[in-house]
Amino acid sequence: MKNSIYDMIGALLVALTIPTMMVVGIIADSIFHLV
Q1: Which pLDDT does position 1 carry in this prediction?
Q2: Residue 35 lies inside a defined structural domain of this protein
Q3: In a domain, 14, yes or no
């Protein structure tokens, strides 16, 4: 049971990492344009 929970958390983190990196890139890009 524990292993499946860890697998779900791992999959969720992987799924959230890609959009988070995209958002961070967009924010960094807008900051560089302001500076």
Answers
A1: 61
A2: no
A3: yes
End-to-end CA separation in angstroms for the chain: 50
**Model's pTM, two decimal places?**
0.53
| Separation between Cα atoms, residue 11 and residue 14, nearest integer Å | 5
Q: How far is CA 26 from CA 8, 11, 13, in A?
A: 28, 24, 20
Q: Is residue 32 part of a domain?
A: no
pLDDT in tens, 2-29: 789 999 999 999 999 999 999 999 999 9
SS3 (DSSP) at 17: helix
